[in-house]
Amino acid sequence: xxxxxxxxxxxxxxxxxxxxxxxxxxxxxxxxxxxxxxxxxxxxxxxxxxxxxxxxxxxxxxxxxxxxxxxxxxxxxxxxxxxxxxxxxxxxxxxxxxxxxxxxxxxxxxxxxxxxxxxxxxxxxxxxxxxxxxxxxxxxxxxxxxxxxxxxxxxxxxxxx
Length: 161
Prior knowledge:
mainly alpha; transmembrane; transmembrane helix; 6 helices
């Protein structure tokens, strides 16, 4: 029963974490495309500021429940089982990728987007109809953020195959 409860929380938190990040990237950003530059800047900034901490905490919850699944209620009961079994090796790899994905989103992707949003020049130019600078900067920030998607897909692959 304990294992199933932790597994449920692990999957639930993962759905919210990945779903939240993907919704912002694939739902919010495209939906703001028709807004004027300064309004778009404010909308994206407000959403990013509001969503960042909850999404980071969800990522931490996924990692924590994953560790509990493997170590507390799972088969990892020694360093030997961690480094010599296939489960242990996948467990370690998933842990590294999960932490790296969360760290990338928290300390690379999010700050880069906040810098783009703080650059008043590109948003003022967009307001005047010159969207090239804004589009370039947003593309760069979204490209950097897509690394998180690669992390998510790699984790999914490790869990399924």
